[in-house]
Amino acid sequence: VQLQASGGGVVRAGDSLRLSCAASGRGFSNYGVGWFRQAPGKEREFVASTNLIGTTANYADSVKGRFTISKDNTKNTAFPQMNSLKPEDTALYYCASRPLGRTNQANSYIYWGQGTLVTVSS
Questions:
Q1: How far apart are CA 87 and CA 44, in angstroms?
Q2: What pLDDT score does 102 carry?
Q3: Is 90 exceeded by the pLDDT of residue 107?
Q4: Which of 46, 70, 73, 77 could bond to 104 as cystine, CB 3.0-4.6 Å?
Q5: How far is it, in rounded angstroms, from Cα 80 to Cα 48?
Q6: Do 112 and 38 contact (CB within 8 A), yes or no?
Q7: How far apart are CA 43 and CA 83, in angstroms?
Q8: Contact 46, 104 (CB under 8 A)
């Protein structure tokens, strides 16, 4: 499975942005998807994850109530909808996938996209 993340950009605090993670190859419907981010000078951190069919999700406390992750297996794509963005959300966002469902542990994911940059100005 190859992943391609897109949708990043420069927005203002309070704005919304929807990222996309497009998967190529077989088996995406059997994979959980996670989103991680890395801000300049900081370690990579977990953002959100969803299960094989996008019916359950887990969120980092920092984004809970603002971000919603979904997965569309008919289009081999996963989306985090990011609302009420804050300057501290500025980071390079990565999508990742793994068989057998979701987890917030980055080292459990097998496939990674290249990242898409989100910049939130105050």
A1: 17
A2: 84
A3: yes
A4: 46
A5: 8
A6: no
A7: 23
A8: yes
Euclidean distance between CA atoms 99 and 29, whole angstroms: 9
3-state secondary structure of 19: coil
The per-residue pLDDT for 1 is 85
**Alpha-carbon distance 108 to 121, whole Å?**
32
Q: Which residues pair with 46 in a beta bridge?
A: 36
- 104 residue type, one letter: N
Amino acid at 50: T
| Phi/psi at 28 (5° precision) | -60, -30
What's the average model confidence in pLDDT over 19-29? Answer: 90
Residue 31 host element (H or E): strand 31-38
Tokens of 85: 């963005």
What would the pLDDT profile of 44-62 be if each residue is shown by its tens digit?
999 999 999 889 999 999 9
